[in-house]
Each structure stands twice: as C-alpha cells, then as structure tokens.
C-alpha cells in the first residue's frame, strides 16, 4: 500500500474512532413523580450531563411504576431531549394499562435518525409527567418506584480534538514523504 493511501486509511480509522464511541448513560428513576402535564411547572425534571452535542442512539428501560387512583399507569410518561425542552421525545412505558396500582415494564426504543441530542451545554433534560391530569394541579398522580433508563450515547468530539488528530496525521505523513524522497 502506498504511504499516502496508508495515511488516508489511518486518518479515516482515527476519525471514526473519535466520533463513533458509544457510551451507556444509566439513570436511576427511583422516586421520580408524575405530577402535572408535560411542560407544566411542578413536574420532576432532571438534567444529566452526557457531553456537549452528544447524540442519543437508543433507550432501554426497565421500570416499576405506581399510579395513584384514579390515575392510571398508561398516563405516566417520561420526556427527554436537550436542556431547552423544545425537542423532547415522550415515552409512556405502558400505554395500555388503564388501571391504577403498580406495574413493571421493560423495552427498547431506537432513536437513530431522530436527531435527539444534547445541546452545547451537554445536558440531557428528563421530565416525568402525566398524559392526563386526574387530580388538582401539583398533586402527584404516580411514582416511578424503581428501575433505570439506559441511553446509548455517542459523544461528538470538540472540533479542536478532530483538528489536532488530523494535524498529527499530517505531520506523520510529511515525515513519511521526506523519508521517501
């Protein structure tokens, strides 16, 4: 393989390694409460640092929910997206159980291609809410008793990191070329 082609192949591998590192981010949901409708004050909202501009690839959940009568398990939901709250994806772990009490749920959701990402602040906003309000405002209608949300996150490198990697490869390429001449 010619040195230039070898350098190009090495550069492609290095850049792929910089941009494609996926990391699981596990969030323990124990104690979160579903209180009001999505976006309303009083809801349980958590901000989790996942890295600037990090992209969400998938979500796995294994949770136990408790709905307080007359609210139902199907009304409990979680929304997630950037810290602005403007690009949220909402998931109801079990949209079918129209009864109160407790239930355990697990599943996987592919987020590839949806463009869900943290902003430049690196914060993932997670909001626990209700799909329908049965009680008065600011009264909890359910609780996330236990379990986890596991996000598969791909870090996006800072532009300076990628630039430094390319600069280093360029220097290696120049040295290889000088040796050849």
Topology:
Blueprint: H1 3-19, E1 22-28, E2 32-34, E3 44-49, E4 55-67, E5 76-82, E6 89-91, E7 101-110, E8 123-130, E9 142-154, H2 159-180
Antiparallel strand pairs: 1-9, 2-9, 3-8, 4-7, 4-9, 5-6, 5-8
Helix pairs in contact: 1-2
Q: What is the tally of helical segments?
A: 2
| Shape label | elongated
Mean pLDDT across all residues, rounded? 85
Query: Which range best describes the helical content: under 10%, 10-25%, 25-40%, 40-55%, 55-70% or over 70%?
Result: 10-25%
What's the main sheet like? 5 strands, antiparallel
Query: What class, by secondary structure content?
Result: alpha+beta
Straight-line distance between termini: 17 Å
User: Helices and strands, in N-to-C order?
Assistant: HEEEEEEEEEH
Q: Ranges with pLDDT <50 over ≥5 residues? A: 13-19
How many beta-strand runs?
A: 9
Radius of gyration: 22 Å
Beta-sheet strand percentage?
Answer: 35-45%
Provide structural commentary.
It is a single chain. By secondary structure, the protein is of the alpha+beta class. It has helices at residues 3-19, 159-180, and strands at residues 22-28, 32-34, 44-49, 55-67, 76-82, 89-91, 101-110, 123-130, 142-154. The protein is built from two helices and nine strands, in the order αβββββββββα. The strands form two sheets. Strands 1, 2, 4, 7 and 9 form a five-stranded antiparallel beta sheet that branches. A four-stranded antiparallel beta sheet has the order 3-8-5-6, with no helix packed on it. α1 runs antiparallel to α2. 24% of the residues are buried.
């Amino acid at each position: 393989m010619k040195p230039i082609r070898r350098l190009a192949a090495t550069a492609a591998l290095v850049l792929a390694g910089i941009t494609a590192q996926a990391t699981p981010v596990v969030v323990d949901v124990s104690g979160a409460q579903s209180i009001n409708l999505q976006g309303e004050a009083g809801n349980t909202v958590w901000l989790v640092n996942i890295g600037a501009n990090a992209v969400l690839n998938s979500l796995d959940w294994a949770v136990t929910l408790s709905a307080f009568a007359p609210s139902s398990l199907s009304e409990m939901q979680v929304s997630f997206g950037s810290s602005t709250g403007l690009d949220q994806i909402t998931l109801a772990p079990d949209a079918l159980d129209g009864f109160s009490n407790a239930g355990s749920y697990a599943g996987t959701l592919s987020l590839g291609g949806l463009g869900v990402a943290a902003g430049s602040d690196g914060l993932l906003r997670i909001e626990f809410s209700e799909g329908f309000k049965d009680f008065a405002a600011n009264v909890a209608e359910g609780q996330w008793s236990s379990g986890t949300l596991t996000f598969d996150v791909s870090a996006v490198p800072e532009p300076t990191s990628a630039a430094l990697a390319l600069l280093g490869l360029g220097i290696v390429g120049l040295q290889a070329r000088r040796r050849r001449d």
